[in-house]
Amino acid sequence: MGLQTRWAKWSGRRKVFVVGLAGVLFACFGCVILGVLLPKPDPTSTSPALAAATTSAPGPTRSETPTEAAVLTEIPAAIDTLSPTHTPAPTETPAPTDTPAPTDTPGPTGTPAPTATATNTLAPTATPPIEVQVGQLAEDILGESNRGVPRVSEIRAYELFEGPVRIEVRIALNDNLTVDMVRWGAYRDVLEVSEGLYKAGFTEHEFYFFGSLPLVDVYGNSSEETVLKASLSPDTLARINWEQVLIEDFPRIADSFDLHRALE
Asked: In terms of Cα–Cα distance, which of 185, 200, 191, 186 is closest to 137?
């Protein structure tokens, strides 16, 4: 079958398609031939007219629109937002403290005048009376009574016109099983008190002792009566050897001695 026969059998649409395709192919082939045959312009050379136009009338420069400026500004901010940053840990807020109330500022005071530097001096200690000293010593030596009465009932000290200071000591004697034991206890009390006072410094004093016991009279009444009287002078006190003296020798040692018949 020849080309004419085939062409006659095609439909009108197919014919149009074939003709259009052939036209397109011819046009492309012509463009290629023109591009090969025509000389290419030198890119470094510029026509005088174009150079003059470019020099004399510069074209308008492109200015950034507000939208572009905002976009350029937001891009670094977005980058900073995307990059991770270290958030510091929250710190504790200190509790509020009470504000101290303002105090009155003291006014200027006068400069005190210099005072003399005080020196610490010990105040003189008052010496207790002789009666107090002798009474305390005698009570410490004699101790408590077995009759429930104070052992030292009275102390007197007085100075005579001539001679040493006389000290009178009244002692409540202790009771005992027998008269001999009561008498021996009375001698011992007087000697022990005399020794204590002498060794305490009463070496220039004359001692008078009065010892008492409860006695019953003919009417049956009991009363505290003096049953012993004795005195010791400073000379006699100085002669006594307190470590070896015998208690039963006291009547012969004393300068004066008197004993109630109830103790004989």
From this structure: 200
